[in-house]
Structures are given as structure tokens and as C-alpha cells.
UniProtKB/TrEMBL annotation:
UniProt keyword annotation of Protease present: yes
Enzyme class: hydrolase
Domain Peptidase M1 membrane alanine aminopeptidase: from-to ranges: 370-563
Top-level division of the source organism's lineage: Bacteria
Pfam family, any one: Peptidase_M1
Listed GO MF terms: aminopeptidase activity
Key words of the record: Aminopeptidase, Hydrolase, Protease, Signal
Organism field: Agaribacillus aureus
Record-linked SUPFAM superfamilies: Metalloproteases ('zincins'), catalytic domain
Protein name: M1 family metallopeptidase
Taxonomic placement: Bacteria, Pseudomonadati, Bacteroidota, Cytophagia, Cytophagales
Biased composition (Polar residues): 718-727
EC code(s) of this entry: 3.4.11.-
Annotated region (Disordered), positions in chain: 715-746
């Protein structure tokens, strides 16, 4: 039963005044900022009934020339066209041309010279043209399935291939490309692939990536995604099946995307037995090629060659690593009804750290990511040791983490190595399976991946789950100068502060979304639904935004607008707190009864009620609850017991709290109440509390106990950038201490 009571309390007038402020622009729907749903992509965020995508299947023969550090390859591409419109030509990516003499990448760099640059960075940054390296592809031929030459035009990192007749829906076109390029020294030339030279034993370790001409994506949103590769924005690639024959020196060990098809031809009987044992061992890695074996290989200089044959189904790319220095270990991981192999390849320079940690980290990653997305579908997941690197491809990635020559290493190095392995292995899910357009939207792979990386650390390495990818860790970036920031929804090449914008901020945003807005249960279901819907497809930002709302029944447009489309930050301040108690004094009651003749909000405010309290020392202000006048009952025949209601509130404490949004980013409000008896209570208010005024709000709370302290976001769950204004009473001593920390850099 509702209690109807006339309350002549001045804080109600405050609520009315506040409501006259700015109305909820931040709560308007995204509307036309998102593309119109259609039969390809629905308003729910799911693929539509007419969704389609292209397919590119590859058969590649490649030779690694270890004497001249060169790649020689030939490939046959079978391109399946499923779009409803015909194609007049095909676009192919030539990523190695980013290092060709006519590349735009060095021309568009705008940097000032530093007088303390180290030589390698100086060359990489300022005088790449002077480095003794001839980059880019040498395209020998482009032919059709009958061996006839096809006309082509190379525009820097893109090649347009002319086809004899328009390619119609459902048709296939087969083309062959012969090519070669010089592998670069990663110490001198910045890039994702390349080689590392080891002068102590005269060997090379090759991490070969972006090494073959690859088909561009053609989709329903952009048509051809043929934006030039400028070095930062990564890749948009179609799925397909791969058969790759890799010829290397006979004493090399080759790890690659996919499953090895001819282990008997390239491994010894002992190595085969160890590999078979690894497939049944779920507890710890099995050494397939030991450090002793690798050290013996280092001394070998075989003139013979071996061909390693790898097959990979339903992948968007292919990479491999090759060296005579590699140690190799592996273990099985139970994922649903499958047991993929987690594996690592590393030279002795990576030990003992890599033998101890790498493959375990791979296995841990597959378990957590499968929990948050879909079960890992591929047969292997590989981590390869490569100096100063972190880069991902389907089923294989290249990661740093090298101990000192005596084998010792710091916790900082261990943290970095485990973090990069989780991150790069995690990229198997984003974007290798849930295949977003990295060239356009970096956050869709890096940001989502960084978030699940954090979830993996929380589960297996909690001591490392406190970096910049958390709400606490992103504060420094969020409160920085806005001229040096861009919204998350910014093209990869135009981002400022790349790591913070594309990795850390999206991850921190998703933590806030999961733990302060939606709750883990709703968020996890919706996030998993997005992964399920878009596995092995090409999602766009709107598909992600819409799916999370569709699968949770939570309106999140305000969240996407604030976190993803703006550079606003969270800074909620407690501006004022007023404490009230019900006053049952008869004289006050009579005074208020007379005042009520002027109306329900009539009467004269006490002077004390208009003063801005700095703490609770002045005690509570009185609330006078008068009897209900007959006129206010209207047509109701029932009557309430006014005195009984007054008595029921006799011991209650009412706290009127005024909050100000100083950062502009609307946010849930998490309040910690500390009572005089020492107990605490956490209360959460949804972000919609700001819907009628985005600048300030006033809310009244009823508490049975007296409050000693009020704090906003006590556990730093919302990325609030200024905790000094989050307390009542104010903490002047804390503010001074924080200002000292900021000035001193401590």
C-alpha cells in the first residue's frame, strides 16, 4: 500500500530546478550514426538471411633461401565470388611493398630529430632509404588457370588484376602469381616479419609474415577493402583453405599455420614419438626437440633441403617460422570435444623462461578465450620466440621475452612475456576467427582482444591483472589533453596515442560495461553471442554494438556514444550533501500547517537549510511532516494515519546528495556509505540517473543509521579521473598528497 503524505521539504524544490538543465543529448539513440539494417546485417546485430562473403583458397610453394635471406614463391589462388553483383577486376594486397622505394610510409612520417636517438632507431625512423636493403616484391608473372598472362596494375601496396570477363555470382576465378622478395633484418628495418641474426653461432631465425600476395576483402559494406597499407593499420582478409609447401635447409625446424602433413619426412623417429606423446599429455609440455638437439643443429650447415607440407582450413592468413636453432615443445589442451596442441618454438637464448612458461601460457589462453567466445576450433596454437616482437597470425604468433645470457630474468620480463603470449595467441579469436576489418577499426581486434587478455590474467596470473587495460589503469590517458586524443571510433592510421586508444581504452571500457553497467552474467552472455554470431565472418562495429544490446536487453547507446564516439572522461564530484531528520516538534508542526495554506511547497526555509555544509558536524536539518489536507486526497476515500507515519520515520536519516558530472562522460554512480558504527554499504545507481540532466543531479537517500563518510567509486571501477572530489566530508589532506604525487611523478 502506498503512503500518501505531504512533505514540505526544500530538497524537492532542488530536484525541480536541476531538471531544468541540459536535457539528455548523451542518451539519444545512435540512430543514423549506425548503418541502416538490411538483409545482409540485421538490426539485432546478427548476420541477415542474405549475408554472404567471398572465399580465397591458396596453394603455395615457397622456398626459404638461407644463404641470401630471400623468399621465392609461387601461388595459385582460387577465388569464389558470392556477392550479388559481378566483379570486373580483382584486388590483391602486396604488403611487402610497404618497404619498396616508392612506398608512402616513410614519406608521411612527421617527426622531429632527437639528439639522443640510438643508431638502429635513427635508421628506422629517419633514413630508411639509406639502409642497405632493397624491399618490395618482384612480381614475375600473373596468369590465369590456362597459363595466359593477366594484365595487372600495381599501385604501391595494392595490385589490380584485370580478368577477361566479369565474374558472376557463384563463379570461381583461378589465378597464379610468381614472386620473390628480400627478407629484412628486423633489427635494422621495422616490420612484422623478417629475420634475426645470431653472430655467436652464425645462424638466422626467420619469422615469415605478410609474405605472399593476398586477396583483399570484398564485402557488403565497403566493396573492395583496398586501403593502402601504410605500416600501422593491419589487415582485412577473406577466409579460405591453404596448402603450403615450405622448402628450407634440411637442418631447419619449420613451424607454421595449420597441421603438418608429412611429419615422417621431416622428423626423426624419436621426434615423432615425442610428438605423439605430446598429443596425449594434458599436464605439462613434452619436449619434442630439446635444447641439446637444437645446439647440435646450430653447428650443422646442411646443403640439403626438406619440404614441410602444411594444410590449414578456414583461415584468413598463413605465417611460418624457420631456424636450425629451434627447441620445440607441445602439450594437449582439452577444449570442448577437441584437444588442440599448444606448442612453442624457441632458441636456447629464450631459456629457461620459455621452456617454463610459453606453452603453459598458450594453453591457459585457449581455455579462457574459449570460455568467453567459442571453443577454439583449430588443431594447433603456436608461440614462437622472436626478439622485441609481438605479432599474430592464424594458429601461430611471434613473441618477445629473452632472459640475460646467464639465464636470469626479472619479474618485469616474465610479466611482459606472458602478457604478449596471451595477447598474440588471443588474436586467434580476434580477428583470426571473429574476422573484423583491422585496416579500418583497430579496436575491434586489439581492444576486444586486450579485454579477454585481462580476463585470462585474472584467471591464471592475477598478479599481472592490473595494467593500463583496466579502469584504474586508463585514468592517466583519459584525463590527458584532448588535443592529443581521438575517439575510439577512429581509423587506424589517424589515431593518436595508438596503444592507449586502440588497446587500453576499449578494454577498460568493456570492464566498466561488464562490471559496473551490465553485470557479468548479462555481459558474458552477450559477448559470447557476438562471438558465436560472427565466428568465421566479417563483423563491423554496428554488429558488435547491436548484438550486445540485443542479447542483454540493456540500452547501451549512451555508453557507445560516450566511450567510443567521444573523448569525454569520467569525473563525478560530490558537490554538496545535506542531512535531514524528521522533526515531530508540535510547534514546528503548527507553524508548517499554517504555511501549507500557501501550497504544498509553501513555508519559509530555515537559514540552516540554505547553508552549504562541509561535514556532518552541524547535525541534521529538520523535516516537518504535516497532516495531509483533505483537498490532497482527491477522490480517494481512504485516509492515512499521519502521526503513525511520522513516528515510523522518527529515527530515519535522509541524505540529499548533489553530484556534478565534470568530465562529460555519463557513468553509473557507485556510492560507498560508511556509517558511524564502522559498517559500510555499497549502493549502485545506473547511468540513466543522468538522463534528464547530464551536468548535475540531486538524489535523496534514506538510511536507518547515521553516516560518517560518503565516497564515490571507492574501488575505481568506473575510470573516474579525479578521486579527490569523490568524498564527503572533503579530504583536504588527501588532495594535497595527490597533488604532490602528480608534481613529483611518484
Amino acid at each position: 500500500m502506498k503512503k500518501i503524505l505531504l512533505i514540505t521539504v526544500t530538497f524537492f524544490t532542488s530536484q525541480m530546478v536541476i531538471a531544468q538543465g541540459e536535457y539528455g543529448a548523451k542518451f539519444e539513440q545512435l540512430g543514423t550514426q549506425l548503418p541502416t539494417p538490411n538483409t545482409y546485417r540485421t538490426g539485432s546485430g546478427a548476420p541477415g538471411p542474405d549475408y554472404w562473403q567471398q572465399q580465397a583458397d591458396y596453394h603455395i610453394n615457397v622456398e626459404l633461401d638461407d644463404e641470401n635471406q630471400r623468399i621465392i614463391g609461387s601461388e595459385t589462388i582460387t577465388y569464389t565470388h558470392r556477392a550479388p553483383e559481378p566483379l570486373d577486376y580483382l584486388w590483391v594486397q602486396l604488403d611487402q611493398n610497404v618497404r619498396a622505394s616508392n612506398s608512402d610510409s616513410p614519406k608521411i612520417k612527421t617527426l622531429s630529430i632527437r639528439n639522443d636517438s640510438i643508431p638502429t632507431k635513427f635508421f628506422q625512423t629517419y633514413v630508411l632509404d639509406d639502409v642497405d636493403y632493397e624491399g618490395g616484391y618482384q612480381i614475375k608473372s600473373v596468369k590465369d588457370h590456362a597459363g595466359k598472362n593477366l594484365p595487372y596494375v600495381i599501385n604501391k601496396t595494392m595490385m589490380r588484376v584485370e580478368i577477361p570477363a566479369p565474374l558472376k555470382t557463384g563463379e570461381q576465378f583461378v589465378l597464379s602469381i610468381d614472386w620473390s622478395y628480400n627478407i629484412y633484418d628486423r633489427m635494422m628495418v621495422d616490420g612484422r616479419g623478417g629475420y634475426e641474426y645470431f653472430p655467436e653461432d652464425g645462424n638466422y631465425a626467420y619469422t615469415i609474415a605478410q609474405w605472399f600476395p593476398r586477396m583483399c576483402v570484398y564485402d557488403d559494406v565497403n566493396g573492395w577493402q583496398n586501403k593502402q597499407f601504410l605500416g600501422r593499420g593491419e589487415f582485412a582478409l577473406p577466409f579460405g583453405h591453404y596448402v603450403v609447401n615450405i622448402t628450407a635447409p634440411a637442418d631447419h625446424v619449420v613451424g607454421a599455420t595449420g597441421e603438418l602433413q608429412n611429419p615422417q619426412a621431416v622428423l626423426t623417429k624419436e621426434q615423432l614419438a615425442r610428438l605423439d606423446k605430446a598429443k596425449k599429455n594434458y599436464d605439462k609440455p613434452v619436449i619434442i626437440i630439446s635444447q641439446k638437439d637444437a645446439e647440435a643443429n646450430e653447428k650443422s650447415r646442411s646443403k640439403e633441403k626438406k619440404t614441410w607440407i602444411y594444410h590449414a582450413d578456414n583461415v584468413r592468413d598463413f605465417a611460418f617460422a624457420s631456424s636450425r636453432k629451434y627447441i620445440w615443445d607441445a602439450m594437449a589442451v582439452k577444449i570442448g570435444d577437441k584437444s588442440p596442441l599448444a606448442m612453442s618454438y624457441y632458441p636456447k637464448e629464450g631459456n629457461p623462461l620459455w621452456e617454463k612458461e610459453s606453452t603453459i601460457a598458450v594453453a591457459n589462453t585457449l581455455k579462457t578465450y574459449s570460455k568467453f567466445t567459442i571453443d577454439y576450433p583449430y588443431p594447433v596454437a603456436i608461440s614462437v620466440h622472436a626478439a622485441n616482437q609481438g605479432m599474430e597470425y592464424p594458429m601461430i604468433c611471434f613473441n618477445y621475452g629473452r632472459p640475460k645470457p646467464d639465464g636470469t630474468y626479472s619479474d618485469h620480463l616474465r610479466r611482459g612475456m606472458i602478457g604478449v603470449i596471451i595477447h598474440e595467441v588471443g588474436h586467434n579469436f580476434f580477428p583470426m576467427i571473429i574476422n573484423s576489418d583491422e585496416r579500418q577499426w583497430t579496436w575491434m581486434d586489439e581492444g576486444l582482444n586486450t579485454f579477454v587478455e585481462l580476463m585470462t590474467k585474472r584467471e591464471y596470473y592475477p598478479e599481472y591483472a592490473n595494467g593500463s587495460e583496466t579502469p584504474q589503469g586508463i585514468v592517466g590517458y583519459m584525463k590527458g589533453e584532448k588535443q592529443f586524443q581521438r575517439p575510439i571510433m577512429t581509423n587506424s592510421e589517424n589515431i593518436l596515442q595508438f596503444g592507449s586508444n586502440a588497446y587500453s581504452k576499449p578494454s577498460a571500457a568493456l570492464v566498466v560495461l561488464r562490471e559496473s553497467v551490465m553485470g557479468p552474467e548479462l555481459f558474458d552472455h552477450a559477448f559470447k553471442e557476438y562471438a558465436r554470431r560472427w565466428a568465421f565472418k566479417h563483423p563491423k562495429p554496428a554488429d558488435f554494438f547491436r548484438t550486445l544490446e540485443d542479447a542483454s536487453a540493456v540500452d547501451l547507446d549512451w555508453f557507445w556514444k560516450g566511450w567510443f564516439y567521444s573523448t569525454d572522461h569520467v569525473d563525478i564530484a560530490i558537490d554538496e550533501v545535506r542531512w535531514f531528520k524528521v522533526n515531530n516538534d508540535k510547534k514546528q508542526l503548527e507553524k508548517r500547517v499554517k504555511a501549507n495554506k500557501k501550497g504544498p511547497l509553501g513555508g519559509v526555509e530555515d537559514k540552516k537549510a540554505t547553508e552549504k555544509a562541509i561535514d556532518f558536524s552541524q547535525g541534521a536539518q529538520p523535516i516537518v511532516l504535516t497532516d495531509m489536507l483533505p483537498a490532497y486526497y482527491g477522490e480517494f476515500k481512504n485516509r492515512v494515519d499521519d502521526q503513525a507515519i511520522r513516528e515510523s520515520y522518527a529515527d530515519a536519516n535522509f541524505y540529499e546528495v548533489k553530484l556534478k558530472n565534470k568530465g562529460g562522460l555519463v557513468s553509473p554512480v557507485i556510492i560507498e556509505w560508511t556509517y558511524k558504527d564502522g559498517t559500510k554499504e555499497i549502493e549502485k545507481l545506473p547511468a540513466e540517473i543522468w538522463r534528464k540532466n547530464e551536468n548535475e543531479i540531486v538524489k535523496v537517500f534514506s538510511k536507518s543509521k547515521e553516516v560518517a563518510n560518503i565516497s564515490i567509486d571507492p574501488d575505481q571501477m568506473t575510470a573516474d579521473t579525479n578521486t579527490n572530489n569523490n568524498h564527503f566530508p572533503k579530504r583536504e589532506e588527501n588532495s594535497k598528497f595527490n597533488r604532490f604525487k602528480e608534481k613529483s611523478g611518484k
